Amino acid sequence: MTEPIASRRTRVVELFLSRAYLASLPIGQKLALGFGAMISLTLVVVALGYLASSLATREIVRTNDLYLPAALKAAEAQADVLRMLASTRGYLALGDPEFLTSYRAHIAEVRVSLAELEGLSASFDADDRALLASITQQFAAWEALPPQRMFDLRADQMAREPAYRTLSTDGIRAGGGVLLAMQRLIDLQAALPPSRETIAQLRTMARFQGTFAAMLSGLRGYVTTRNRIFRSEYESNRDVSALAWQSLTSRDARLQLTADQRTLLDEIAVQRTLFLSYPDEMFTQLEGERWREDLYMFSQQALPIGERMTSDLQRLTDRQQSRLQLALDGGRSGLEAANRQTLLTGVLALLLGSALAWVIAAQISRPVQQLTGAAVRIGGGDLGARAPVSAHDEVGELAATFNSMAQQIQQSVVQIRREKRRADDLLGVVIPIGVQLAAETEFDRLLERMLVEAQTFCGARAGAIFLATDDELRCVILRDDANGRRVGGTSGSAVDVAPIALRPVDGTAAEHRALVHAAIHATTLNLPDVDQPLLASIGHDASLIVPLKSPAGEVRGILQLHDPIDPERGVVDRFDASLQQMMESFSSLAVAALDAYRREQALRQEIRQLTIVIDETKRRQEVEQIVDSDFFQSLQSRGRSLRMRRAGGTAASATDEPPAGDG
């Protein structure tokens, strides 16, 4: 019987998810499978979220493109109108030209704002367009009002203030006539022969003149400032002046006046009566609505237009803001719905992805955890720990390699422990470097050991030793491990570095200045801390130059080291202060060994010279003993006889023969 299709699909899924099948896949395919599933789920979530938020996005875009600019522009136009009204009111109240300049700028801004609102009116409804049309008409009425008429009135006090105009024309003319005539009257009175009556009359005239002038001053102050204090001053002086006038125009007083004075007094009475008819009229004008024509025109004609414009703009702003709020609420609701949908699909995708990720991760992480556990056990001292090889992928190959490496480590550790035990049996303590140097008997090997020990101690890639004479530094050994260069010492290669003259640093080549400075001043130079440009001229990243000083402070030479290697990072490091101090101590040991070697060589030379002198003295003594012996004397005699025979002389006598027994 044929197997159903649904059953076959179930078996395929079970096979796909089975551990054996996943274990047989390489890690790359496992990761591709897992990431592919996660990407697919992510794409599903993104697509659903995009579909859910597209409507909300479109509404937000519409809000941003239409409602928000309209609301902002309506509010801006309202603010421009308010600033225009404030500038107008400020100029009319204070007369400052800055307000006039501000008004002109603000009315231009209102004009621009209304034009921009007109450009946005396509998105308005009928009510909003009607409001905008009304605002435009009101602004046209404002411009037709000609505010310049109010500004001209503000600049002309006579035209803008009726009370001031009355006072400045008729009032001043009548009041001034009273004061002038009164002054002539006083002059005539002063010309009369002095008497008690004339002096009293003159005093009454002066009192009337002063009180009338004070009354006129108070009236002027009230007219110009509308301050009630000046009106009270006017009224009090008016009453005092009236009393003085009664005294001056009484029958007895008139009888004391001359004919000319009485004529002047009648003229003063006419002018005084005329002047007193004006204050009540001025008070009515000052205390009425039209005490200033420019302010009256502003309050009755301009301000209502401005207030209607402001009110209509406020209504338009409120309506646009209401539509904006509704649009924002709709967009927020759409976004909330999209968020809920995205959250729901995201949770479902997370659950499915987590399940798939757990299955795949288990296939990858379990062998890694087993491998890590084996490494931890080996690190804890269990060198026999091994990782199980449970998969045929890269992790399985890594586990097999790890087991092989663990086997080699186990063998190496056993060998190291064996060698360490041997070393511990041979060495109870570490032999000091100074003792090693002092034990060296060959000069070249001594120099080489000094440099090698210093390089090894610091991990320096290069170094050199210079010996000092009275006038120069001479390189005796140089090792550059980075470039494979070794000269001097036991290398068999002659040193090819020219001697360096010991003279002031200013006259020395750049690459030798540090050496000369250290030798002359007997001081250590750690070049990264002293002179970076000088270090660049030497051609190294870090250099330490240590003078080899005797206990008396005499510089015997220079130890130069370059580019220490950090053993952990494997990069060129710097010579720190501790390493510099250790090298300075090492230089003291090296100088001591060098001095000991030189003393030993000098002593050997002295011993050789003394040995030669002793050998010469001994030979001389032996010769003297031979010459003084009888045998040597007999030989000398025979020798003379033989020479004489050869020369044809007589035969040798018997006495010339050596005695018997001398052989």
Report on this structure.
The protein contains 22 helices and seven strands. It folds into three domains: 23-159 and 296-378, Four Helix Bundle (Hemerythrin (Met), subunit A), CATH 1.20.120; 162-291, de novo design (two linked rop proteins) (Up-down Bundle); 436-597, 2-Layer Sandwich (Beta-Lactamase), CATH 3.30.450. The chain has 663 residues and is an alpha+beta fold.
| Unreliable stretches | 12-17, 425-431, 530-537, 650-663
Number of strands: 7
**Can you tell me the CATH topology of the largest domain?**
Four Helix Bundle (Hemerythrin (Met), subunit A)
What is the SS-derived class?
A: alpha+beta
Outline type: elongated
Backbone CA Rg? 64 Å
- What order do the SSEs take from the amino end to the carboxyl end, as H and E? HHHHHHHHHHHHHHHHHEEEEHEHHEEHH
Q: Please give the domain count.
A: 3
- pLDDT averaged over residues: 75
- Number of continuous helical runs: 22
Return the CATH architecture of the largest domain. Up-down Bundle
Distance between the termini: 142 Å
Largest sheet descriptor: 7 strands, antiparallel
- What is the CATH level 1 assignment of the largest domain? Mainly Alpha
Helix content: over 70%
- Beta content: 5-15%
